[in-house]
Structure formats: structure tokens, C-alpha cells
Amino acid sequence: MEQPKPSVHRSRRWRRQTVELAAAFLSVTAADLIAKVVLHGTDGPIVLTGSALVLFAVALLHAWWSPHAPPPTTLWRVRTVPLAHTPVTLAEHEITLMSLHPGTEELFLRTPRSLDPGALAALLTTTGHTLRDSPTRIA
User: Fold this and answer.
1) pLDDT in tens, the chain (139 residues)
2) ∠ at Cα 78 (73, 84), nearest 5°?
3) CB 104 within 8 A of CB 79
4) If you ran DSSP here, which 8-state letter would residue 99 be given?
5) pLDDT value at position 129?
6) What is the spatial distance between Cα 93 and Cα 130, in angstroms, rounded to a whole number?
7) Measured between alpha carbons, how far is 134 from 32 in angstroms, rounded to an integer?
8) Which is nearest to 127 in space by CA: 84, 98, 97, 94?
């Protein structure tokens, strides 16, 4: 793969720094506006109470959702001869068959992140699959 030219790298860095600076200015402006509303506005206590309630609700939602969030997964490409029992076998091991491409004999699988390529290959071969090559991690 060809390395990007230094001028391209500087251009990307310059754009990123410009966006970060704009975000900092926007944050300061928002903080100043909120401070003025709270100090000088008649609705200051209402704004503070509303903000506190929203933050509390978000914290509760996060605390509730965290244990219910799906576990991290990995996407794999496996070149094999698919068998009729493939979906059932995979489901027993918490592996999701994302797509099957019969012309190229490729399976795209989503597995728990803890499963490594050797274990995935061993699982597929013990269930009768003939692997064309080792599983390739996509994401």
C-alpha cells in the first residue's frame, strides 16, 4: 500500500485541528450562554433542575442498558463448502451466519470476540466443513 504524501497528511491534520478548535469555541459559547441564563434569567433554576433531571435519567438509562448490551463480536470470512446443517451448528455455539455466497463458497460469520481463528477453524472442521483456507478476520 502506498504511503500518503506528507502534504496530504498535513492537510488532514490541519482539518482535524480546525474542527477541534471549532468544537472548543462552540463549547465555550454554550457554557457562557447557560451561565448567563442561570445568572440573569428568571428561568435559571428551572434550567438547572431540568438539566439535572436529564443527566440523572441518562445515568439511569446507562446503568440499566450496560448489562443488557450485546457482547463484543468479530466478523469473519470463511471459504468452505457450506453444509445443510450449518446454521443450526453455528447457532449452538453463539455464531451468527451473516451471509452465504454459494458461487464463491464464502460464509460471513459473526462470533463472540473471544473466539480465535484456530478455534473457529476447529469448530467448522469437526462439524464436517472442508475449509479452503483459514478464517479471515474482517472486523
Assistant:
1) 555 555 555 667 788 888 898 989 988 888 888 788 777 777 777 877 888 899 899 999 888 877 777 778 888 888 887 677 777 778 888 888 888 777 777 888 898 888 888 998 988 888 888 888 888 888 7
2) 100
3) yes
4) E
5) 81
6) 18
7) 57
8) 84
Read off the pTM: 0.49
**Contact residues for 70 (Cβ-Cβ < 8 A; gap 6+):** none
In angstroms, the CA 23 to CA 42 distance is: 29
Alpha helix segments (H runs only) across 41-135:
44-68, 86-92, 117-126
Residues 83, 129 contacting (CB under 8 angstroms): yes
Beta bridge partners of 77: 108, 136
Radius of gyration for the chain, computed over Cα atoms and rounded to the nearest angstrom: 26
In the block, residue with C-alpha cell 463480536: 73
Query: Is the Cβ–Cβ distance between 98 and 71 less than 8 Å?
Result: no
